[in-house]
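Support case: user asked for a sample of complex input and structure output to validate their parser. Sending the pair below.
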Amino acid sequence: MTALPLGAVDVDLHPMVPGLAALEPFLDPLWRDQISQRGMEGFETQSYPPNAPKTVRDDWRPADGSKPACTVEQLRAQVLEPWGISRGIVTPLYGVQLVFNEDMAAGFTRALNDWTRAKFLDEDARLAASIILPMFNAEHAVAEIERLASDPRFVQAMVLVMGETPLGRRHNWPIFEALVKHDLPLAIHAGSCWRNPVTSLGWASWYMEDYAANQQAFQSTLASLITEGVFSKFPTLKVVLLESGVSWLPAFLWRLSKTWKGVRFEVPWVDRSPIEIVRENVRMSVQPFDAPEDAETVDRLMNHLGSDEMLLWSSDWPHWQFDGPPRLPPGIGPDLMRKICVENARATYMRLAWETVP
Amino acid sequence: MPRHVVGPVDEIPPGARKLVEAEGKRVVVFNLEGEFFALSDRCPHQGGPLHKGPVMGLVESPCPGEYSYGRAGEIVRCPWHAWEFDIRTGRSRFDPRRMKVRAFPACVEDGATLQAETFPVRVEQAYVVVEL
Amino acid sequence: MNVIRPEAAAGRPLAATQGLIDVDIHPRVRSVKDFDPYLSAEMRHRLHTYGNRPRHGFVKGTPYFKSQPLASRRDAWTPEGGTPASDPAFTATQHLDFHGVDIGVLNPLQPSGQGDMNNPFSVAMAHAVNEWQLDQWVAVDGRLRASVVVPYEDAEASAAEIRKRAGDPRFCQVLLMSRTSHPLGNPKYWPIFEAAQEANLPIGIHAFGYSGWPMTNGGWPSFYIEEVSEHATSCQSLVNSMVIEGVFERFRKLRIVLIECGFGWLPSVAWRLDKLWPTLRDEVPHLTRAPSEQIREHIWVSTQPVEEPPRPEQLLDCMGWIGWDKILYASDYPHWDFDDPRHAIPSYIPEAKRAAIYGGNARRVYGF
């Protein structure tokens, strides 16, 4: 595949903040001054070590050694123009959500969202963005949603998949309420806040294990949302899983549904099979697509997913998920490709329709 | 349909159950506050013996964190994988429309009306009868 | 009059033409006093005074309450009122005889002392549980085989226990739990793999244990239903670890049997690692084979709890992706989510493949 269908939407793009100095113009003076007062060094996280191959594809690293993926010009040159992207949703992964001090976290998160708006949304009408949410204070998160929701270019709100407590817990519900009120899907992105080790068995030795561990995190997080009854309480909440891997979903749902049939009384607000709930409320971006290069297997996997409305095209720029032009494994035909690249994103993100591209 | 006399009503007091076998079927008869219900003993999932399952009330929820717990003793759970079945209807709780265990009509009749049955009855007693 | 047959009909699956081998039976003591004969005075005192101390908060029971008492089938309490699977004779009546099991692998769970907060106690208990299995189970019923229970957080002590039992045909595997204090691929556990490989014993890794870490990598969940889901994800983490740390590069003959962890997830783990490996190869030069190859060569799965996808052919896909020679029947007797061999292995699986699942594959892995 060399060209995406006309009107393609890329739902997972990651501009990288080049350093704390880039956020200074957007910070309250109190937090801005603490950067130098306290010798703060930056919020790059262990989930994406800056020099690791996965973090930036080789040919997207500037040859002159300058910072990758931090300007709208780089995004245009590497993604929007060559691939004919009609709309792109940017989600910076700078680790403001890891900060323990809740007030500081909120301050830096606000600044990050403002940086995204100034450097990307204001510079290219094709771009939309995630509202990065403070993850450990629901009031702060709601305030940030309220602050930015009226800007239609913010089309979803993002939390990292590995938090401190499972995402479905009731103390997070004011956040879901605010999202539903403003027609904002909840985006759950790969990565950790590093409040817990990346496995339930403790710390891993190799970065490869850390990255692999996102697959488990999405299962636990989705299990929490379902069993805590988030979709019972907020039936219109849409959840988008970004950079999850995709192929883990069917077996996870089979197991959860089987267990639910016998243990329903523990979570009596779950009034239908988790398989049905997810089909209705959950969507996934396609990179990485953890499947072999075999059309028959991919075709069967799509059968197991049981829905052609669930997948959303993403490049995951600048993360290294594929070489060369956009690609998915063989076995995905042109009709499905159109749905993945165009229709499913527009059905998921109502706000994309609120803006027209000149 | 063949009728089967299960036994005198005193044998199955309220809250109790009795396993019977007739016409090639294993059937468990429950007494819910004086009303009798009969279900196939065989769970539709993997054949677990329902007569060995515990009963509980029905746990419902209008909304996460809120519980309504009523109909004490009217839900039987398969002793194996714990599927819940409504004793009154045989319907499963998790998918009442499409998953159920077979229910058989059950009623109480006087000994006097059952004289013709092969089961030895006493005229002055009442008996539980199941249609198989 | 009513004539009741005492049980639903006994019977062995017809397709079990290579034997019926059950790789997951959970024998249990009637009370911890049953271990007394096998413990020193000091450890008896500790057992009865401080008790088992797994890495969770309750003295009795488990932190996530099961959906049934002792997580067992309601009909598994013995006729004398003993706890499920505490009596070999009743286990035979209700399961081994009833289903025609040829060989059953014993996997003792708590109170085995595995993963106990106190290491010397865990070491002593491992020895005691192994002796108890031999005396009270294997000596009583020749169909049963014991697992070498080991104090896995102490790898050297575990290796010693394995070496002590090596060559004894009554033991067919080493038993570990899935939720260990570090992911199982961590080099701290490698002496265990070395000893097992040396003794030509497969390692059965059974879902459970308490790592001491939150039960998900996003914190502690609220519900038992989440814990059941987490047994699969925890197992995925340990597979990731064993592959990426290079366990199978170092121990080329090691055989791992994943018990009660589910299996539907295994293909997606293999695919993900295969995709990731080329990108991160510079970090892990010790890996010389594709992860999916390593998984294919070294890891087997047991059937219980068998996956129940919406459509039969989806289960066939899954099993085909894993490998029809990699799947072993397990009952999980006496637990509530027990799989009756006649019903849990669907008849739409071709007969020859069912025969392999029922017994052929286990014969090869365990050398029965």
